[in-house]
Amino acid sequence: MAAGERQCRHYLQRHRIPELLHRLGALLLYHRPERPREFLIEVLERVQAGKRAEGEYPYLMDEDNLAAMFSLLDVVGQGHITPAQHREALKTLGLSTEDVQLGDDVKITLDVFKEEV
What we know:
The protein is 61% helix and 0% strand. It is an all-alpha fold. It folds into 2 domains: 3-52, cAMP-dependent Protein Kinase, Chain A; 63-116, EF-hand (Recoverin, domain 1, Orthogonal Bundle), CATH 1.10.238. The longest helix has 16 residues, at 36-51. The radius of gyration is 17 Å and the shape is globular. The mean pLDDT is 80. GO terms for molecular function: calcium ion binding.
């Protein structure tokens, strides 16, 4: 890989651009607005306001959606999932798993799952 390409990849990763674009695409497909450009501008403005603690950060899934996803992962109803299941769920949602430092013996409850997502 050329040095320029490496720098570009590093830049994108450092600023988490792929995750942002993935999340924006998911929001577009979930809401399917009539005016997608205006919708994206509004979402990005809400992200900025949320980061400044002036508004609510735009989420793709609400608590009911997260509970439903958790129940799909917890097929036998144990009340918890494994760290591996948790990481895969985060990846599926387009979220980073870099900061997830869980041992294989940890049990992820619904409350922990919601907080992490």
